[in-house]
Amino acid sequence: MIASLAMYDRPETAAANDRFWAEIRDRLCAHGIDAPSRLERAAPFWEVWQSPALLFSQTCGFPFRATLHETVALIGTPDYGLAGCPPGYYRSPFIVRARDPRTTLAEFRDTIFAYNEKLSQSGWAAPQCHAAAAGFQFENTICAGGHARSAAAVAEGRADIAALDALSWDMIKRYEEFSLDLRVLEWTAPTPGLPYITAANAPVGLIRGAVVQAIAALDLADRRVLRLKSLVEIPVPDYLAVPDP
What we know:
Layout: E1 2-3, H1 14-30, H2 45-49, E2 54-58, H3 61-66, E3 72-79, E4 89-90, E5 93-97, E6 113-115, H4 121-133, E7 141-143, H5 147-155, E8 161-163, H6 166-175, E9 182-187, E10 191-192, E11 196-199, H7 204-217, H8 220-226, E12 230-232, H9 236-240
């Protein structure tokens, strides 16, 4: 079986993610589920999400509504207590260089927009929908391959603007020195956050209960590192109703 927590896994959060998984794993094993001892960190995202051996993972809202909702089961959505968002929701800050004199999104319409990948809700879909509401699309783009890489591309002058996952932005501000050269221009509207998923035939209720108990059992330091508050239930139709760019 496969378990993964790759969405917000970075060197500074890896140990806390390992302890979070250990809390979940021990509860699943107590119910006779052969949960893996360690998180999978080498396999590509889609290989994990589409595996028939998937036990536990976290995906982005765009892949979930695009295809995954047809093949996986939704466990629940972690609430990270993000400012300006209902529980379990998140949004995207548009990031520009701190010294850039431009003050409106429209002024960036013809500049270089950095994004992590085109099946990202926070890095691609939400900002493109937000731009469309302002009457344009970002057409001059570079694929950076990750939120931190998108932010670094702006800080280094290889791009002029990027949109990031709000929690990733918080972690970038906490751990990356180049964040001092960046500022938030504006925010997209909140959408359902990154859901935990499992294989379609998995015991969803049991896994959900194990996750709820694991969050409560984490010590305060790990909960602060991971920003975990609780697990909330956002209906699948709410994910599917989010607009595509």
